[in-house]
Amino acid sequence: MSSLYGDDTPAEVKNAKGLHLITMSTPNGQKVQIMLEELKEVYPDFDWTTSFVNIMTNDQKKDWFLRLDPNGRIPVLVDNTQSPPFCVMETSAELLYLLKFADKNDTFGFKDEYERSQALQWLFFWHGSGAPYQGQVNHFNKFAAEKIPYAINRFKNETLRVYGVLEIQLSGKYTGEPKEYLAGNGKGKYSVADIGTWPWVKGWSFSGFTDEDMKPFPHLLKWIDRIAERPAVKKGVGEKYNLPK
Q1: CA 97, 168, 212: angle at the middle one, nearest 5?
Q2: Fewest CB atoms within 10 A around its CB: which of 27, 139, 140, 142?
Q3: Which long-range contacts (CB under 8 A, 24 or more apart) does 9-15 make?
Q4: What is the DSSP letter of 156?
């Protein structure tokens, strides 16, 4: 047995074959859940298994999990086709791993290097500049024991600023050409850039933003609705990924 696994590793994890996802259906978990479901739509023989951890009970801080991801964050992707099994942490790295090894036609990426660069720029933009801010909005607005107005307002304002950057890109404010998706020539193409961004942004209401807050972002709101209609997206955020009772 690989040193990644021990007696404390859940059986469904250490006995998994092929690709195995360890997740909880948070925005970060949903990124990879959606990517897997999208790949299944395009490549019917593509498959994986899934197990769940409850981050509210700190399952992800146990030794068995930390051997897979020392950062103790979900989701984790384990590729058991490799010997020893290969672990991938961080959602953007997981999306790019799946793009590299499972999407032979670059359905969710780009063959053109400049379009590929665009996708990476927007994927990394949200990973580094969007998710951390909106995550802090959720923490201070929803879960913190003490409500700290300065912290709430700071992270809300920064998240709205980032929404404004996405709005600039989608509206074509400086190019004169509105886009349907974040990366790619012309109107763009649905890609890992969108998959890595959408699960967070679609939760604007949960984060405490109002309709009035979102009025400056009409193209962003249309983008949210456009992606929400994809069958694989519905599966990736659906009941299939609810924590087992």
Answers
A1: 110
A2: 142
A3: 9/64, 9/67, 10/51, 10/64, 12/49, 12/51, 13/51, 13/64, 13/78
A4: H
H/E run at residue 86: strand 86-88
Q: Which amino acid is at 7?
A: D
CB-based contacts of 140: which residues, under 8 Å, 6+ apart?
147, 148, 151, 152, 155
Tokens found for residue 95: 């999306």
Query: How many CB atoms are located within 10 Å of the residue 206 CB?
Result: 14
CA 99 to CA 96: how far, in whole Å? Answer: 5
pLDDT (tens digit per residue) in 183-232: 999 999 999 999 999 999 999 999 999 999 999 999 999 999 999 999 99
CB-side neighbour CA atoms (13 Å) of 10: 15
Q: Tokens 């469904």, residue?
A: 12
Other beta carbons within 10 Å of 232: 18
- The reported pLDDT for the residue numbered 55 is 95
